[in-house]
Amino acid sequence: MPKQLLLLAGRSLLERSVALFVAHPQVDEIVVALPAHLIAAPPSYLASSRKPVRVVAGGARRQDSVASAFQSIDRRTDVVVIHDAARPFASSDLIARTIDAAVEYGAAVAAVQSSDTVKRARTATGGDLLVEETLVRSTIYLAQTPQAFQRAVLREAIAAGAEGADATDEASLAERAGHAVRIVEGERANIKVTTPEDLAEAAARAGREGEWDPAIEGARIGTGYDLHRLVEGRPLVIGGIVVPSDRGALGHSDADVVCHAITDAILGAASLGDIGRHFPDSDPQWQGASSLDLLRRAAALAADQGLAVVNVDATVVLERPKVADHIGAMRSAVARVLGIEPGRVGIKGKTNEGVDAVGRGEAIAAHAVALLRASVRRARGSAAGPPPPRVA
Ligand code: MG
How far is the CA of 58 from the centre of ligand 1 (A)? Predict the structure, then answer.
């Protein structure tokens, strides 16, 4: 069995390494070079619903596998990241820094400074190893992956490899092709699983960390709560939908408690304060405003902070009327302004069992939570900057 298919706490090195890139907001597509005998039936986890994952047959040497994968990347690709399947612990941040350095310098390699003194050896007559020289340790860096390249730079490096130069990594081929390669500070934890001892250490670490999903790295959660008094002569707007009722919620806007609670949950997750700070009652601009519009604006404020809504869930509490028949319309309305699928919006109705002001029908309340995750925009810099590179 190829070592990349060995299991760490139930998931292979390959699956874990691919997952780092499936989850990474800067990466658009993934190409996996597999041993030829696995091509007919690639592991099922390589089928990602979130971004394209292509499988190609690898070659005899590492550089042949990279050349094969390079052939199948999207032609619009700006930056290509190369990563060893045997390094399942690279952080999202390390991948981002390597991509950013490649954008700036053309080629970048993650590397850690050697903590051991490095000797160049020679074999003496008779076969004994002797020290030829001692290298200056402060200048010695041990290369890891990820390594990232602008597409044209990698094309030249691959051409250098095809002309016969053998290489243990692509950065050295880029050097030979005459390109400067930027060193990005690597990570000690980003080990290459090579020996049985490495595998044992990696398995212990994977076990300690449990099944952490890198997709939710950087995720933020927020809660929201709202309550409005119910009075005669007002429409009852809940989740953007007018619910037939003899009474409605009192407020400056449409007093939609569900939208207000979700708005606060989103603002809270993004540490942006609350609805009153952004859309104050005292500002005539928000008189009679649609709360769906406030919700849309709150999501845009979070997006400016590099955060995208993953899902929201709300509970609306009122004694009457029953809201069950309107829940589907509410979910669609909220999903539309948030730009997410209705399947990512939960809304439930409850009564307060006749207890307290809500139970007496004097008020309507709502509770909400929102989950946000780092969006592509943040990882790729400000919205006003140049368009993000396309990354394979
Ligand atoms: Mg309110």
Answer: 59
